[in-house]
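Hi team,

As requested, here is the filled-out complex form for the S-adenosylmethionine run. I kept the field names the same as last time so the parser does not choke. Let me know if anything looks off before we queue the next batch.

— J.
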Amino acid sequence: MTRFGADYYRRFYGRGGVHDKNSIARLASAVHGLCSWWGVSPRSVLDVGAGPGLWRDWYHREHPKVRVVSTDVSEYACTKYGHEQRDIATWRPAKPFDLVICHGVLQYPSDADAESAIENLAHACRHVMYLEVPTRADYRTIVDPSATDMDVHQRTGDWYRTRLERHFIQAGAGLWARKGGHVLLYELERTR
Ligand SMILES: C[S@@+](CC[C@H](N)C(=O)[O-])C[C@H]1O[C@@H](n2cnc3c(N)ncnc32)[C@H](O)[C@@H]1O
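And here is what came back:
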């Protein structure tokens, strides 16, 4: 897939890019800390569509004993940043991971592929998933078109929720607790 080549990563992860090592460090420590608060301190993490590998690098630095698998569909990203080459629309791991990260990925596949990807993410997740995917409303209201890839599939929040809620409970702030996992949320700790 040539779309995700050197130019793509230079454009979105160079100066003024979408996020960087320091911003991911703040997010990752919050996500890891909340998982620990919920009693599922991650021992295995799957980073799907890892791109430059900022989450993987944070885990290696801060929690070197955590087993991290990072994947990406891009041959370029896999060679340059060191991931397993996997398309989340067609691949699922043999065993689930405590924490799954899917940050800025699901806006790329078609509807059918994004639907399969959600099924594969659910299969891959034992306890918690961190998911960030901009919706149609986000692209209209929040997203900065000069700093963000706008050549994506813009779907509604309801489109994602319908599919995600088959397997997850939405905690908020991008966190989803896997149904049947160990995370139990009080009524007002979750969105519904
Ligand atoms: C915006 S970047 C996000 C990178 C990283 N998750 C981050 O937040 O820094 C999107 C990444 O998703 C990857 N990607 C797109 N479609 C994918 C798919 N079907 N399966 C796996 N990775 C995919 C691209 O190759 C690209 O590296």
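Two things worth flagging: The pocket of S-adenosylmethionine is lined by residues 4, 12, 48-52, 54, 72-74, 77, 87-89, 103-105, 108-109 (CB under 6 Å). The radius of gyration is 16 Å.

Thanks,
J.
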